[in-house]
Amino acid sequence: RDWGKYIIGLLIIAIVAYASSLAWSLNSEKAANEAAILYADFTNAVQANNSKLVYTITDKMQSKYSKTEYTSMAAIWAAKIAYNNKDLVKAQTYLNWLVQNTTDKGL
């Protein structure tokens, strides 16, 4: 039998699988780094007591980086700030988003 075709086919499948895995890994790392930068801006907004900017950054993180832990932490913090500002609807919105989207099983 001619096993050359099968071996080449298996090599092609292995190379494609490896390349796909590498691309996914690099994309995930890039998203995590971008989320970390946004989270740093978020903490600066919290320290400056700028609730409007806190909400804007949190909303951006939720739409672009919903699967990162940074976004979960920002949502909790934004909900607390909204609650302290007596904006209960916004606080509830952030907490509901958190329950539905977080990947942290401890929450």
Helix content: over 70%
Q: How would you spell out the order of helices and strands?
A: HHHH
> Gap between N and C termini, in Å?
58 Å
Measured by DSSP, the beta-strand proportion falls in: under 5%
**SS-based class:** mainly alpha
The main pleated sheet reads as: none
Separate helix tally = 4
Count of β-strands: 0
Globally, the shape reads elongated
Estimate the mean pLDDT confidence: 92
Rg (C-alpha, Å): 21 Å
Poorly predicted tracts of residues? none
Describe the structure in brief.
The protein has 107 residues and is mostly helical. The protein has helices spanning 4-47, 51-64, 69-84, 88-101.
Overall description:
This protein has 107 residues and is mostly helical. Helices cover 82% and strands 0% of the residues. It is elongated and about 75 Å long. The N and C termini lie far apart (58 Å).
Features:
107 residues, mainly alpha, 0% strand, 4 helices
Secondary structure elements and their pairing?
Layout: H1 4-47, H2 51-64, H3 69-84, H4 88-101
